[in-house]
Design a protein that fits this description.
heterodimer; A: alpha/beta; Rossmann fold; six-stranded mixed beta sheet; four-stranded antiparallel beta sheet; globular; B: mainly alpha; D-Maltodextrin-Binding Protein, domain 2; 3 domains; two-stranded antiparallel ribbon
């Protein structure tokens, strides 16, 4: 099954998902999340709910921003979508595949780029991208030109034979993106990918992400930096304490709340939720 | 499972490790350098290993007989008795510097402060030796300082010289009386070593090689495992791999094979290096160590065959521990406990009294060492006879270790554990604040360990102090077993009745439990006999057991001490509190198994522990299936009560069982013994009763219900 999937992948940077940004008819979502819950038994917090029934949709050709402060539940949601964690309840589908029942198929639909880059210290950039390409079952004759093309597009020629330990954070992040793109997935997940990057590297990364959108990829971008989200995202969801406070197209939300500055809007939403939560806590205690 | 993914991960991990300087140092450089370096050091140090002269004060030289003279004219020991001051036959005059000018008291002080190593004092009247003879002569005395090694050696040297001199005096006296000294020795003793030269050195290598094999297999597996799991967690690369198409079992296999490879290579290089260095060094010292030589070539073949299962076992164990660790630093802390558990199993079989038999071959690792020793020594028949049990036990351990490793990889709580310090106080506060109906797993473990510790302390305190056997039996049951369980029940759980399974069961299940105890009795005796055969009880323990029932205690008191008290205390503690805690794991079988292991350990004597553990499985099953502690208490009481009654009956004479010999026989030595028809009948009844309990609709714990629903949905396999 995996081999067939890999073999069926087209040329690099083309998407198999239906791309429709505007008008006409409703496109089918790339990601569908419904009432997703995740709880842990935590010694500090008792039974701790990292996610409390979140729901959202993300579409191909769009960047969906998952915005929230640290500990809001962003990484948990992304880990569930990338099948690293099992949800406690609710459902999530990626390109039509269920994360619980078809995790192996889901993994072929996405590329995951995390904040810590996940680059092996003792592997060169080329070896690492090639290794993941092989794991995705891409035949050698397809894999080699594909890796060449990715390296060229991301301008990684200089670090091709450099070990991960000797790369800068920006270079590592490039390798991480190359690894996530090697199987040409329709969905890319970026979990606080600019953290630790210098201004230039962060800007270059954001440009790459914008480019991926223009190629019809669905990008799920998690961040707590509002300027990045404002610049990049088509739709956003503000998440706080495991709940989605607001979700929708960025412009629509700005209009609804009469606030053009996303950072201000974010502050308002978080402050409102915090005070509501405090009130609730005061009543119960 | 996709084996091409396993191969990919394996090759990646191997390449990764080969690029790690620390790993290369451990597996390649260290074995190549360590042993040759030790060998060279041995050569260098051998020159300093000579014996050095020590200072001796002689007091009372003027009280010595003139013939035969102990000292010559130059105040040195006479050459005749000075010839053997030590095992190597060195001259005493070269090893002992004699002084005659120090008074006794002062000389003793000098020995105390270490300036002089020994004082040889001849008391007044010693010169009358020739006249009085024997024990009538005042005794000469060697004063030495046992806290100082050098002083001990000096005393031994002096003793050898004096014994030689005494023998000369004795022989002189015998000759004077017309007796030839040879006449008082009825025979001489000659020693002939019939061992083959190659086997003589094999005996040495059969101890060295298995030890090194096991230690290096563990070390060789440990460091790569830590780097591949805890290290990857720390570096964030494990998350990337988990999001790739490789499923968990493929990742585990890839990593396991890598760890195994490095373990095997580490062992092989170490053994080759030690073999070559050892041969070279021993050849150079052949004159002083004629029995040692190069290891037999065939030994390497046996070592190679053994290293595969040993490395598999250690690799799986290390992998599970490594993935559990949050960081490489934490992982390295686990090495010491692992060594402490492994070392006795490896070192004990090196003792000459530890032989390869069925019982010992069933002990993990120990069996391997013993079989390996037998093969290196050329005792193939013995090794072959025990190969199957050793292979079976090792295979089972490998399988369990591997399952544990896979389980660890499937646990989100383990894979994504945050790198935070364990705050014990906080955790206890959490458990107290969020008490559930039944105690948590951690409380069950704590309770088990507390019982073991308090029991140990109690035995230590009461031994020899309390003569009353009933008190010695009942008091530990109340204080060490029931006490911690009751205390923890009220502190760690919300519902004491549910925790201790204090519920009235169906009347039939109580009757069935009683019948089961009767039916299982012949089987328990058989198991006990088998265990005793495999691991015979030491004579002292057997005598202690015999004394236990050989008291003046009345029968009701015996029943109270050995049947009623354990049935109540042990059941409430083990099948009550501990089992309830372990059931929070979500697996009833595991809960019963862990409870039984703790129950077995609480019996201290290995042979008793094995039987108790087996019976614990039945007792745990009864409580889970009936939801009540009562059937287990009834079973426990009848089982122990039966043993007490039979012992009491046998004490008052062997019962006559005329006409029933085909079923049961009794003898004063063995007590009651059931014949095979009885055992078969008991097995059939036991099976029937267990089937009855299996059919009872048992009440699942909340965790068991969740676990079952997960397994029923079939989610887990897709993630694995």
């Amino acid at each position: 099954m995996r081999k067939t999937l890999a073999q069926s992948q087209g040329t690099l940077f083309t998407t198999r998902a239906f791309v429709c940004n505007s008008g006409g008819f409703e496109p089918s979502p790339m990601i569908t999340v419904r009432n997703l819950t995740k709880s842990y038994a935590d010694p500090r917090r008792g039974e701790f709910f990292a996610l409390r029934g979140i729901s959202f949709d993300a579409y191909a050709g769009q960047i969906f921003g998952l915005l929230g402060p640290n500990g809001a539940g962003k990484t948990t949601a992304l880990r569930i979508l990338s099948t690293m964690l099992q949800p406690s309840s609710g459902s999530a589908r990626v390109n039509g595949f269920d994360v619980l029942r078809q995790p192996d198929l889901v993994r072929h639909q996405l590329g995951f780029v995390s904040a810590n880059t996940g680059v092996y210290d003792r592997m060169t950039a080329w070896e690492m991208v090639e290794f993941f390409g092989k794991l995705y079952g891409i035949p050698d004759d397809v894999l080699q030109p594909r890796v060449e093309e990715i390296f060229e597009r991301l301008q990684m020629g200089e670090i091709r034979d450099r070990l991960g330990a000797k790369m800068s954070t920006g270079q590592k992040q490039k390798v991480s993106i190359a690894r996530a793109l090697v199987h040409d997935p329709p969905l890319l997940i970026f979990d606080e990918a600019t953290s630790g990057l210098d201004v230039l590297s962060a800007r270059s990364l954001l440009e790459t992400i914008a480019e991926l959108r223009s190629m019809g990829k669905c990008v799920l971008y998690s961040t707590h930096i509002m300027r990045e989200a404002e610049k990049l995202c088509d739709r956003i969801a503000v998440i706080h304490r495991g709940r989605i406070l607001e979700e929708g197209p960025l412009k629509q939300l700005q209009e609804e709340h009469g606030e053009s500055d996303l950072e201000e809007l974010f502050h308002q939403l978080i402050a409102k939720d915090t005070s509501t939560e405090d009130d609730r806590h005061a009543i119960t205690t | 499972m996709n084996w091409s993914n396993v191969k990919l991960i394996f090759l990646r991990e191997v390449r990764d490790q080969l690029r790690d300087r620390r790993t290369l140092f451990m597996i390649l450089v260290l074995p190549m350098l360590l042993y040759p370096f030790v060998g060279i050091s041995f050569f260098q140090l051998s020159q300093f290993m000579r014996e050095h002269p020590t200072e001796v004060v002689i007091v009372g030289r003027d009280r010595l007989p003139t013939a035969p003279a102990l000292f010559d004219e130059e105040d040195r020991f006479h050459a005749t008795w000075a010839a053997t001051a030590n095992e190597a036959g060195e001259d005493a005059n070269k090893l002992l510097n004699l002084r005659f000018d120090v008074p006794l008291d002062e000389a003793r002080k000098l020995v105390q402060d270490g300036t002089v190593q020994a004082v040889l004092h001849f008391p007044d009247g010693f010169d009358a030796l020739a006249v009085a003879g024997g024990m009538k002569t005042p005794i000469p005395e060697i004063s030495f300082n046992s806290a100082k090694r050098k002083s001990q050696v000096t005393a031994a040297r002096l003793k050898r010289v004096l014994l030689g001199w005494r023998q000369a005096i004795m022989f002189g006296e015998l000759s004077r009386r017309g007796i030839e000294p040879a006449e008082i020795e009825p025979f001489a003793l000659a020693e002939t070593d019939v061992a083959d030269e190659s086997l003589r050195s094999a005996a040495f290598w059969s101890i060295v090689f298995p030890f090194l094999l096991l230690i290096w297999a563990l070390t060789g597996a440990f460091y790569p495992a830590i780097d591949l799991c805890a290290g990857e967690k720390e570096r964030g690369t494990l998350e990337t791999l988990l999001a790739s198409p490789a499923v968990r079992s493929e990742i585990v296999w890839g990593k396991l094979l890598t760890v195994m490879l490095f373990s095997v290579v580490t062992v092989s290089l170490n053994l080759m290096s030690v073999g070559l260095t050892g041969s070279f060094v021993l050849k150079s010292f052949q004159s002083s160590m004629p029995n040692l030589g190069s290891p037999p070539a065939i030994a390497y073949l046996w070592l190679f065959l053994t290293v595969i299962p040993v490395s598999s076992l250690f690799s799986a164990l290390c992998l599970a521990l490594a993935v559990f660790a949050r960081s490489t630093k934490e992982g390295q802390y686990y090495l010491m406990p692992l060594f402490l558990i492994t070392l006795p199993l490896v070192v004990l079989p090196m003792s000459p009294s530890f032989e390869l038999n069925l019982g010992n071959s069933l002990i993990p690792l120990t069996g391997i060492v013993l079989v390996l020793r037998a093969t290196i020594e050329g005792d193939y028949v013995l090794a072959l006879r025990h190969l199957v049990p050793v292979a079976a036990v090792t295979g089972l351990c490998c399988m369990l270790a591997f399952r544990w490793a896979v389980d660890q990889f499937n646990k989100e709580s383990v894979l994504f554990r945050e790198s935070e310090r364990l705050d014990l106080l906080l955790r206890i506060k959490y458990y107290l604040r969020h008490r559930q109906e039944t105690p948590p797993v951690a409380a069950a473990v704590v309770c088990g360990l507390l019982i073991l510790l308090i029991q140990f302390g109690f035995n230590f305190l009461l031994a020899g102090r309390v003569r009353n056997l009933a008190l010695m039996t009942i008091l530990p049951q109340l204080v060490a077993v029931l006490g911690p369980a009751l205390l923890l029940t009220f502190v760690m759980s919300k519902r004491a009745r549910k925790t201790l399974s204090l519920k009235l069961p169906q009347a039939w299940s109580v009757v069935a439990a009683g019948l089961l105890a009767l039916a299982i009795h012949p089987l328990a005796l058989e198991v006990n006999g088998l265990v005793q055969q495999l691991y015979p009880l030491p004579q002292e323990t057997q005598e202690a057991y015999a004394q236990l029932f050989d008291t003046e205690m009345s029968f009701p008191l015996m029943l109270l001490a050995f049947a009623v008290a354990p049935a109540i205390c042990e059941e409430l503690a083990f099948r009550g509190f501990i089992l309830s805690g372990f059931r929070r794991l979500g697996h009833k079988r595991l809960a019963i198994l862990f409870t039984s292991i703790l129950f077995g350990l609480a019996h201290f004597v290995l042979q008793q522990s094995i039987v108790a553990c087996a019976l614990g499985l039945v007792l745990g099953y009864l409580v889970v299936q009936t939801g009540s502690i009562l059937p287990a208490m009834v079973f426990h009481f009848i089982h122990n009560g039966l043993l007490v009654t039979l012992s009491w009956l046998l004490k008052n004479g062997t019962p006559r069982l005329d006409g029933w010999e085909w079923f049961i026989v009794s003898s004063a030595e063995e007590g009651l013994r059931f014949q095979w028809p009885a055992v078969a009948f008991a097995a059939a009844i036991t099976l029937g009763l267990l089937t009855y309990f299996r059919r009872l609709p048992y009440e699942k714990s909340a965790e068991e219900t969740i676990q079952e629903s997960i397994e029923r949905q079939g989610i887990s396999p897709a993630w694995r």
